[in-house]
Amino acid sequence: MSGIQRTALVLTIIGAINWGLIGFFQFDLVAAIFGGQASALSRIIYGLVGIAGLVNLGLLFKPSAEVAREPEARTER
User: Fold this and answer.
1) What is the pTM of this model?
2) How far apart are CA 48 and CA 4, in angstroms?
3) Which pLDDT tens digit goes with each residue over 10-55?
4) Which residues of 17-43 are buried (b: 16+ CB within 10 A; e: fewer)?
5) 31, 72 in Cβ contact below 8 A?
6) What DSSP character marks residue 33?
């Protein structure tokens, strides 16, 4: 996994936590930290989280090593 993908994954996790807080407690952590939903910094964070989600969309279709690997032949004794 590249550095860009790891960074995108961290931002996506931050976004997921923020959405969980909004859904369960009606509390927007990003807005609380950066001065409201309309502030420029909050909008930048929201935008970065959205871009990170799109980057991680590529991971959804990337074959994993476990799936791509052929099963080993089993021998019975």
Assistant:
1) 0.74
2) 12
3) 999 999 999 999 999 999 999 999 999 999 999 999 999 999 999 9
4) ebeeeeeeeeebebbeebeeeeeeebe
5) no
6) H
